[in-house]
Amino acid sequence: MSIPSLQKDPTSAGTLHSLGRRQFIKAGSMLGAAALLPSLTVMSQSSTDRQSHMQSSRRRLGSLEVSAIGLGCLPLVGYYGTKLDRAQSISLIRAAFDEGVTFFDTAEVYGPYFSEECVGEALASVRDEVVIATKFGFGVEEKQPTALNSRPDHLRRAVEGSLKRLRTDHIDLLYQHRVDPKVPMEDVAGTVKELIQEGKVRHFGLSEASAASIRKAHAVQPVSAVQSEYSFWWREPETKIFPTLRELGIGFVPYCPLGRAVFTGTINENSRFIKPDRRATVPRFEPDALKANMPWVAFVRDWAERKKATPAQVALGWMLAREARIVPIPGTTNIAHLKEFLGGAALRFTREELRKMDNAMARLKIVGARIEPFGEGQIDH
Ligand SMILES: NC(=O)c1ccc[n+]([C@@H]2O[C@H](COP(=O)([O-])OP(=O)(O)OC[C@H]3O[C@@H](n4cnc5c(N)ncnc54)[C@H](OP(=O)(O)O)[C@@H]3O)[C@@H](O)[C@H]2O)c1
């Protein structure tokens, strides 16, 4: 795998120091803890340490300001086997907010609808303090996602539904979930532009869009963020997407930043996945491929030991260190896991460490596609 060179000063470039109201209120009592953090291991952080770090290391996606790590609200619908009920989902989302997370990622098709409903209910009382991102772009019939559909009339209906479920009058960041080859990007961007003018949407995003589509969209309505898969074992966005985003001043939101749990230390060669667990259909997780991919697990464990951190913290800390414009959105159904991975915001890597990691990764092979052929057919190249 070819690995593009790093940006200058990757470790500190993303830190913003402006604090919002909630952050300002809490920061006063936390400055002491923050000053101590470099001498603590991220594994031994308290909740207060984590909040402090989340609040002092905010990042920008275009002109949106968000916590350095957001919460992906897909797994709670049962995407990886464990399904939460409404009360559990709301507790999880509130726990993330209490830990300093201000960026929440959902979509019309997560459930469908259930994830948006939980996000809306959990965050209604703190709506002005959070950034809610959702997505349109599929049809939904009888509560099941159908084909790609970004036609302007459908897009407008999807937004009205999302606004209701999210219990809000505006969506902070609205992504097109997948580029629809049947609808010109100019029409999609033009419709989102109108929705922004109407006050229903604040920022425009794209997911798994090619550099050419990003440029087309951005020319009509400035794009704030692009969301695509990105983690140790899927670094393709570094080739064409990252340079385009740097040039246009657009943020990047990695999805599956924990490699669907591979980089958390909880998966081994004997792990097996049964539908509806999404991994049951991903070639990289088939038994032979999984076994062959175990060196990736060893790699992240090795770095976790070196950094006195957990594997999930290394996975997130590494990508935060690579670019100031990156804001990962790991997903979980487990509050303990949430608290653990948020510690990744405090992890720092030197340029030499990042180089060593690149060298080690360049020697690792990846067996199996990241996505099955049907899903691959919906990716915009
Ligand atoms: N735009 C798109 O097309 C697209 C596609 C996929 C995902 N997304 C978004 O990206 C978000 C993140 O991706 P993802 O959730 O699919 O994958 P991910 O973040 O790479 O991995 C989630 C998995 O990791 C496990 N996990 C998390 N923290 C852990 C920890 N500390 N220890 C052990 N296991 C841990 C979770 O299990 P537990 O529940 O047991 O913690 C879950 O199975 C999604 O939630 C969604 O919002 C977007």
Q: What can you see in these coordinates?
A:
The protein has 381 residues and is of the alpha/beta class. The protein is built from 15 helices and 11 strands. The strands form 3 sheets. A 7-stranded parallel β-sheet has the order 3-4-5-8-9-10-11, with helices on one face. Bound molecules: NADP nicotinamide-adenine-dinucleotide phosphate. NADP nicotinamide-adenine-dinucleotide phosphate is lined by residues 72-75, 80, 82, 105, 177, 207-208, 227, 255-261, 264, 266, 312, 329-334, 337, 340-341.
Task: For this entry, give a set of tags.
binds NADP nicotinamide-adenine-dinucleotide phosphate, 381 residues, alpha/beta, single chain, TIM Barrel, 7-stranded parallel β-sheet, 11 strands
Largest pleated sheet: 7 strands, parallel
Strand percentage, roughly?
5-15%
Helix content: 25-40%
CATH class annotation of the domain at 43-258 and 324-348: Alpha Beta
Give the uncertain stretches in residue-range form: 1-40
Major sheet: arrangement of strands:
3-4-5-8-9-10-11
Secondary-structure arrangement, i.e. CATH architecture of the domain at 43-258 and 324-348:
Alpha-Beta Barrel
| Multimeric status of the protein | single chain
CATH H-level homologous superfamily name of the domain at 43-258 and 324-348: NADP-dependent oxidoreductase domain
Distance between the termini: 18 Å
| Number of helical segments with 4 or more residues | 15
- Give, in order, the helices and strands: HHHEEEHEHEEEHEHEHEHEHHHHHH
